[in-house]
Amino acid sequence: MIQIRKIAAAETYPLRHAILRQNEPIEKCVYPFDTAESTLHFGLFENNTLLGIISVFETSKDVFTDKKQFQIRGMAVLENHQKKGYGAALVQHAMTYLQKEQEFLIWFNARIIALGFYEKLGFEKIGTEFEIVPIGMHYIMFKRFYNP
Q1: Can you spell out the DSSP letters for the chain?
Q2: Do 142 and 123 meet the contact criterion of CB atoms below 8 Å apart?
Q3: Which of 23, 39, 132, 148 is least surrounded by CB atoms within 10 angstroms?
Q4: Measured distance CA(64)–CA(51) in Å, rounded
Q5: For the stretch 38-76, what's the b/e string if a residue is b when 16 or more beta carbons lie within 10 angstroms of its beta carbon?
């Protein structure tokens, strides 16, 4: 049985390291504002085994003028559980959780290999590709939400 629930920042570090930063020290998996009161971390569990994570930070990107902005960062699913819809479930869960806001924008730096995944979820690219060393090439992606 799949369950998504809030988790502590430290619970995200092993998956961040295994999937996103495997060639770097685990200390690189600790992000600024991981423990801020406004930061959210969710874990996707199957039979109490953590298979995927997503973190949501309340922070602004200067290319957007929206008052309320959130950044997705550190989204990862264990390799042998990818392509099962778990990543989409995590992103959807985060979006649903944030819908208490009247208007907001979600943005993130998407790896080139993940563009199609995020486009299927309704996110758009903005700007040109850029490199995050040593991770690789990225695009900024975003989606706006308006709740009546």
Answers
A1: -EEEEE--HHHHHHHIIIII-TTS-GGGG--TTTT-TT-EEEEEEETTEEEEEEEEEE---TT---SSEEEEEEEEE-GGGTTSSHHHHHHHHHHHHHTTSSEEEEEEEEEGGGHHHHHHTT-EEEEEEEEETTTEEEEEEEEEEE--
A2: yes
A3: 148
A4: 32
A5: ebbbbbbeeeeeebbbbbbbbeeeeeeebeebbbbbbbb
Whole-number Cα distances in Å, 1 to 50, 78, 93 = 12, 16, 16
**CA gap 106, 58 in Å, rounded:** 9
Look at the pTM and tell me if it is higher than 0.70.
yes
List C-alpha distances in Å: 89 to 23, 38, 83, 94, 117: 27, 21, 11, 9, 12
Tell how strand 40-46 and strand 124-132 pair up: unpaired
The tens digit of pLDDT for each residue in 88-140 reads 999 999 999 998 777 899 999 999 999 999 999 999 999 999 999 888 999 99
